[in-house]
């Protein structure tokens, strides 16, 4: 079974509290999502493999470590995942980026529609970190993971800011090999399949569409 890592760093937890506040406006909300993504990316990349190299310092030779093997690809799920992308790239600037466009059905929130997909050609050789602030029913996450797996990806993590037990369970059942990195696991879903207490509709708050 996959790991679920809750990023309990005080800076992340503080920023999530600001994000939850219904009085936080779109500008600050966008900045917070980027900042949280950057801090969480530190956790998501913790197990990147290292290899030892010798570096010549001004005072001698040092046995030191550099990242070896697989490189990273970030895959934001549009729209809301785009809000995390710049933050993640701030930490791993050389990463490639793929895009997947999904939206939940307005009537049946359990159904997810795909409208866009463009992935790096070498995704099979990369450590893939899927970005989406919200993991609610798990429908979008499961579909996005299916898409990157069909493209050949083998090392996949899912990074979100808020999730709930239902979403974690659904992803773990469908994809037991995919670790989830999250900032919080909230109480659950309401009858409209929104996370409570959550942060509301993340895409709408990021882009001011409601
Ligand atoms: C939100 C969110 C996730 C999805 C999570 O996107 O960004 O992609 O819902 O819910 P789920 O776990 O039940 O699938 P939404 O469908 O609202 O689209 P948007 O990002 O374009 O607003
Ligand atoms: N999508 C959101 O933006 N928020 C939720 O709570 C659930 C899905």
Describe it for me?
Helices cover 32% and strands 32% of the residues. The longest helix is centred in the first third of the chain and has 19 residues. It is globular, with a radius of gyration of 18 Å. The termini are far apart. The structure holds 1-O-pyrophosphono-5-O-phosphono-alpha-D-ribofuranose and uracil. Uracil binds next to helix 6. The site of uracil has 9 residues, from helix 6.
Task: Provide keyphrases for this structure.
single chain, 210 residues, alpha/beta, eight-stranded mixed beta sheet, 32% helix, 32% strand, binds 1-O-pyrophosphono-5-O-phosphono-alpha-D-ribofuranose, binds uracil
Rg from alpha-carbon coordinates: 18 Å
Number of helices: 6
The tally of strands reads: 15
Average the pLDDT over all residues and give the rounded result.
96
> Which ligands are bound?
1-O-pyrophosphono-5-O-phosphono-alpha-D-ribofuranose, uracil
Morphology call: globular
Distance between the termini: 38 Å
**Main β sheet profile:** 8 strands, mixed
From N to C, what is the helix and strand string?
A: EHHEEEHEEEEEHEEHEEEEH
Low-confidence stretches: none
**Percent of residues in beta strands:** 25-35%
Counting helices, strands and paired strands, the structural category is alpha/beta
Helix content: 25-40%
């Amino acid at each position: 079974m996959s790991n679920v890592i809750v990023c309990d760093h005080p800076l992340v937890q503080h920023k999530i509290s600001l994000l939850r506040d219904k009085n936080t406006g779109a500008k600050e909300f966008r900045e917070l999502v980027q900042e949280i993504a950057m801090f969480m990316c530190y956790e998501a990349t913790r197990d990147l493999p290292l290899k030892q190299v010798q570096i010549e310092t001004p005072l001698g030779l040092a046995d030191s470590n550099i990242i070896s093997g697989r490189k990273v690809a970030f895959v934001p799920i549009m729209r809301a995942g785009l809000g995390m992308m710049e933050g993640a790239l701030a930490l791993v600037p050389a990463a490639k980026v793929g895009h997947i466009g999904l939206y939940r059905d307005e009537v049946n929130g359990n159904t997810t529609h795909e409208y866009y997909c463009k992935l790096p050609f070498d995704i099979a050789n990369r450590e893939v970190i899927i970005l989406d602030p919200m993991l609610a029913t798990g429908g979008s996450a499961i579909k996005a993971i299916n898409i990157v797996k069909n493209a050949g990806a083998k090392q996949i993590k899912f990074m979100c800011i808020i999730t709930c037990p239902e979403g974690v369970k659904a992803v773990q059942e469908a994809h037991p090999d995919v670790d989830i990195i999250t900032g919080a696991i909230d109480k659950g879903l309401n009858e409209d399949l929104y996370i409570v207490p959550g942060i509301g509709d993340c895409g709408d708050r990021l882009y001011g569409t409601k």
